[in-house]
Design goal:
Length: 196
């Protein structure tokens, strides 16, 4: 079983539960090993799935400072530790309507995504799965694109940009269109710079 990749997670509680499972830790063994950071009661509250057995309930919130110390003790590199803390801030954000809560959550999501992209670029991994937690088909498309000769890549990008613009114009005013248009602009700039 391979170690869990934090950049594929949207919930730090699920990541911690998978990390424990991957390393063969019980809550008790983990709490004993990292007793200066977390007690078994706190760990159980943090990762408890309740009676439904689904995702962790999230009633207990670990302080970001404590989580950072725990992540360091677990041997997490700084990029992964940053992602863990950003996930914690997003997952446990307490925002009230009328207090710019949606702006705060949106900015946190942007920071999370930015961190994923930066780490992927540093590691030289540009696969859609790492960058976006994408589907298997997006990863296959990426691999296919990388195998094409540059002139075929240029043609494929031109077609993608054209089809994307048509789709964006038809979806005008709907959620997600701004992001699509931003991606199309970036692709167009790359094409202009001759980077297929």
């Amino acid at each position: 079983m391979s170690a869990p990749n934090i950049f594929k997670y949207n919930n730090y509680r699920i990541y911690l539960a998978d990390w424990l499972k991957n390393r063969g830790f019980s809550y008790r063994a983990f709490a004993e090993r990292y007793s200066s950071f977390v007690s078994i009661i706190a760990l159980a509250k943090l990762l408890s799935k309740g009676r439904t057995g689904g995702e962790p309930k999230g009633n207990y919130k670990m302080a970001p400072e404590t989580l950072a110390r725990l992540g360091k003790a677990m041997g997490m590199p700084s990029e992964e530790l940053r992602q863990l803390i950003l996930l914690r801030l997003e997952n446990d954000a307490e925002t009230l309507p009328g207090q710019h809560g949606s702006v705060y959550k949106r900015e946190l999501r942007h920071l999370l995504e930015e961190n994923r992209v930066q780490v992927a670029e540093v590691e030289g991994e540009h696969s859609a799965e790492v960058l976006r937690g994408g589907s298997e088909s997006s990863l296959l498309l990426y691999e296919f694109f990388e195998l094409l000769p540059s002139r075929n890549r240029a043609r494929a990008l031109e077609e993608i940009i054209m089809q994307g613009r048509i789709y964006a114009s038809r979806q005008s005013g709907k959620p997600g269109v701004g992001k699509l248009q931003s991606l199309l602009e970036r692709l167009s700039r790359l094409m202009e710079m001759g980077a297929p």
